[in-house]
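Support request, please re-run this one:
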Amino acid sequence: MIFAYPLYIDPGTGSMMFSILVGAAATLYFLLRALIIKLKVVLSGTNVSKGAQFNSKYVIYNEGKQYWNVFKPIVLEFENNKTELRYLTSASDDPVFETSWVYIKPEFIGEGNKAFAYLNFLSAEIVLMTTPGLQVYQLKRSKTVRHYSHILHAPSDATMYRLFGLDYFDSVLLTGDYQAADIHFLEKDRGLPEKQLVTVGCPYLDVYSEKIKQLNTEEENRFTVLVSPSWGASALLSRYGEKLLDPLAASGWNIIIRPHPQSKSSEAGMLERLQKHYENNPNVEWDYERDNIYSLNRADIMLSDFSGIIFDYMFLYDRPVLYVSYDLDLRPYDADDLGHELWQFKTLKETGIELKEEDFLHITEIIKNAKDSASLAEARKKARETAWQYPGEAGKKIFAFLTETNG
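Re-run finished. Output below.
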């Protein structure tokens, strides 16, 4: 006897199969679109070089709305200078859609493989993005794009990307001159052609510095500690968790915990456990806002690890930082090939106050005694001048670079 059972696909497998089909369909669509573009190029006798015909002159790709503050000053410069800019985004709720533009052409192109399929066959003179790993992972250089430019989205070391993060860009826009030396070292070490390295400043810090002027500057009734770590096995929350947070929660101070955005997807279980553990502590709050400026504004002191947010806090507010000792495995990063200590780690030792694991039980006393000093203030000033050049001018400088590079 033969029994016929209905075909059953569990929800997880069904979702995966659906994603694969959507990705395949998107790839096929953009492949056909690219073939049409290439055919036009061949028939017109043009090459991907100066003088070639491109569908767009200037393109920005934003992989997530958290990077809007990086691109906002640039977008405004294009609009103010009446220059058309194509703005591609993988965020359907990107803040770019909240404004009616004349010269900015925003377009949602999907997420993940769908977005990469679109970008891989783009036709443009110059493309600017914060996304690293061009020509390494799914994101490939389109044969109909003349110039790829990467903009650093933090004033920390440019080599803290995963391996080969910047290798295949034509130019990199720096926040400070110091970042150039390590990029050039890797180019020579790996036999790569030299990229254009242009120091333009840090656009999102320019945005935040303006926002600060509009924020409430009244002091909190209680002393406030901001815990704002990086993510991963070596980061503060994953490595120490309750061992560090319990003494802080018992202090009676306002404790703001701001996990790294990546933790929400990569360490969701850990965050859920910690939030449940402290749900009955009225002085402990969690911050998942897109902009970190609101928590930074409230904090009297920051506690972190190796996160780049440390420099946001020091540069914008000039207040002391405590950092927990860490053992970061650099092997997955470009920095591992340098053979010397990174600027950000060396600077953290000069500008911050180290907190060791054996100090956790006495953390309240350590924080009370973590008074600022003239030497720490001077070190912060030096770090800011090194890593955040041309404050307030990034949008103008980036606009000038893009239009001159296209000229």
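The radius of gyration is 24 Å. Residues 9 and 17 are 10 Å apart (CA to CA).
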